[in-house]
Design brief:
3 helices; single chain; two-stranded antiparallel sheet; Methane Monooxygenase Hydroxylase, Chain G, domain 1
Length: 106
């Protein structure tokens, strides 16, 4: 992550950068590649006129895989980015995490 700034409620501007080490990037990218392949094969099933029940089962599997990737990213973010943010007193990172969690669990 590059340098960025946060504006506190009192107008104070804090500029800083994080040098996070995400340990799960390779695993996430591998899962994403498989997920994209799975989604493409599901699209092909639809194009080929396959049974709707089969397509729905495959879409359910894709949905579960997307959620699994999200959980890995969330855990990695908490273990690295949020731990660093707490050490740095970066309250904005916690606010942003809460917004992301709200979107993720909808």
């Amino acid at each position: 992550m590059g340098e960025h700034e946060h504006v506190l409620e009192d107008g104070t501007i804090i500029k800083h950068s994080h040098s996070h080490t995400h340990t799960q990037t390779k695993a996430v990218l591998n899962r994403m590649a498989r997920l994209i392949g799975h989604l493409e094969s599901t699209k092909k099933m639809i194009e080929d006129g396959r049974d709707c029940s089969e397509v729905l089962i495959q879409l359910s599997a894709v949905d579960a895989a997307i959620k699994a990737v999200g959980r890995i990213i969330l855990k990695d973010h908490i273990e690295h980015c949020i731990v660093d943010a707490i050490k740095d007193g970066d309250e904005q990172a916690i606010i942003e995490l809460n917004k992301a969690i709200d979107q993720f669990i909808k």
